[in-house]
Design brief:
Keywords: Lyase. Strands 1-2-3-4-5-6-7-8 form an eight-stranded parallel β-barrel, surrounded by five helices. With 310 residues, it is of the alpha/beta class. The chain has one domain: TIM Barrel (Alpha-Beta Barrel).
């Protein structure tokens, strides 16, 4: 599999980690999930992210999930693996292992202890040194990490760390950050890297208009993200907005703190993608009222999607 580069674009779906009811890894569901995302038009997959419940896996389980996914795609899709860790040694160990398996690159979120611009820069400079030639994605998700990374700091990292080839943009609000980074590269003042956006796709049409290259998130209907990115690529912003609008109520509901992952897994299980919506503890559980909300939103979404002939 070719390595991840600055030219990456499209939809890299953030995959959940399927578990059986007893909490064990569900290999059969992993296979079905990979097939589902590929059939939905995903450009690539990102595994072992925060909503993939990576912190709840043992080191061996992380390797088993990566091996299962990489073997299943058999080189048809690039795989990015989350390797964020408190220390650089375990990060490099997992990164080296998954790259040997055939991963295209890895993703690294900053530890919550980083507070200043210099600390953030020095951390990612150290990540670049630790990972060697492995290309990596800088995950900018301050709502979860509590680390705010200014555009000027990202630019400094991009200039000095050549293996940083992609930004996973999940700042909120963050449209100005995309504009600032693209203005710098458009003027030739810095290297242009890939920008893929998260936050459940809630701002995807606007992010694409600002210069993003696609999406990297895990909304339970990846066909929305694929449709929006493809329509934007054709310059058909009205069609992109129509597709986005049809799915927006459910995407908004799924982005709730606390029950968001439970909602995502519930819908994926309902769609037959995974056998169980089980999360490893600690995890959230949907109430009967939550389920009623989701079912109502799904029914309305089905009608809207039929109306616009997605």
């Amino acid at each position: 599999m070719p390595l991840l580069t600055e030219d990456a674009k499209g939809v890299y779906v953030i995959a959940v980690t399927p578990f059986k009811e007893d909490g064990a890894l569900d290999d059969a569901s992993i296979d079905r999930m990979v097939d589902f995302y590929e059939e939905a038009g995903a450009t690539g997959l990102t595994i072992l992210g925060q909503l993939g419940e990576a912190p709840k896996l043992t080191a061996e389980e992380s390797r088993l999930v990566a091996r299962r996914v990489i073997d299943r795609v058999a080189g048809r899709l690039p795989i990015i693996v989350g390797v964020s860790a408190p220390g650089l040694a375990p990060m490099r160990e997992l990164a080296d292992g998954v790259m040997d398996m055939g991963a295209a690159g890895v993703m690294v979120a900053p530890p919550w202890t980083l507070k200043t611009d210099d600390q953030i820069y020095n951390y990612y400079a150290s990540v670049g040194e630790a990972l060697g030639k492995t290309p990596f994605v800088l995950q900018d998700y301050p709502l979860t990490t509590n680390v705010a990374i200014a555009a000027k700091v990202i630019d400094r990292i991009v200039r000095d760390v050549p293996t940083c080839v992609m930004l996973k943009h999940e700042d909120w609000p963050g449209l100005a950050k995309i504009s600032a980074l693209r203005a710098l590269s458009d003027k030739g003042e810095t290297r242009r890297i890939s920008i893929l956006c998260g936050n459940g796709g809630l701002f995807l049409p606007e992010e694409m208009a600002r210069g993003a290259d696609g999406a990297m998130t895990g909304f339970c209907y990846p066909e929305m993200m694929v449709g929006v990115v493809e329509a934007c690529g054709r310059g058909d912003m009205d069609r992109a907005q129509d597709i986005f609008d049809a799915y927006l109520p459910l995407a908004r509901y799924e982005q709730q703190q606390g029950i968001g992952l439970a909602c995502r897994k519930y819908v994926l299980a309902k769609r037959g993608v995974i056998a169980s919506a089980k999360q490893r503890k600690p995890g959230s559980v949907l109430s009967p009222a939550d389920v009623a909300d989701i079912e109502r939103l799904l029914a309305r979404q089905t009608r809207k999607v039929e109306e616009i002939a997605v």
